[in-house]
Amino acid sequence: MNQKIPVWKTIRFTLSNLTQNSWMYLRNSIFLQFFISVFGFGFLTLIFRGMLFMTGQSNLNFSNFKTVLLSPWSIPLFILYLLAFAFSHFHGVLNSHLHDLRNDSRYSFFMA
After folding, report:
1. pLDDT for 59
2. 64-92 exposure pattern, b = at least 16 Cβ within 10 A, e = fewer
3. Which of 70, 78, 20 is nearest to 47 (CA)?
4. CA 51 to CA 43: how far, in whole Å?
5. Tens digits of per-residue pLDDT, 73-95?
6. Per-residue three-class SS string for 15-38
7. φ/ψ (deg, to 5) at 84
8. Which of 86, 50, 89, 99 is nearest to 71 (CA)?
9. CA-atom Rg of the chain in angstroms
10. Counting Cβ atoms within 10 Å, is residue 51 exposed (0-12), middle (13-18) or buried (19+)?
11. How far apart are CA 83 and CA 89, in angstroms?
12. What Å distances lie between residue 84 and 33, 52, 64, 77, 87, CA to CA?
């Protein structure tokens, strides 16, 4: 199972895949950026404002930073905020990588 994949062959395959599917990548990246900009930003703002509301603060600054982050109500919301942020930013990278693996039969064992 320890099969070595040549680096230059992989780079050439990646570049040829990018040139063959350039319009698909452009379309998907525009859609993902629009989705992240509209819905992701709104969802992150909602979580952040909920975190401030639960702690009774009107804004976040240096004097109340510790109060907001250490409040028992804001800890789960802060974790949710971090997960939503990570999901919104790494979802596009994961989808494009899985698309590359699905199109190449040499790497079909990844999708089993």
Report:
1. 86
2. beeebeebeebeebbeebeeeeeebeeeb
3. 78
4. 12
5. 888 888 888 888 887 767 656 55
6. HHHHHHCHHHHHHHHHHHHHHHHH
7. -65, -40
8. 50
9. 21
10. buried
11. 10
12. 15, 17, 23, 10, 5
Mean pLDDT (the chain, rounded):
77
**Tokens of residue 61, six digits:** 């600054």
Q: How far apart are CA 98 and CA 108, in angstroms?
A: 10
Q: How many CA atoms lie within 13 A of 43 on its CB side?
A: 15
d(CA 88, CA 65): 25
Instruction: Name the pTM for this structure.
Output: 0.54
Query: From the centroid of its chain, how far is CA 77?
Result: 18
Residue 31 tokens read as: 């859609």
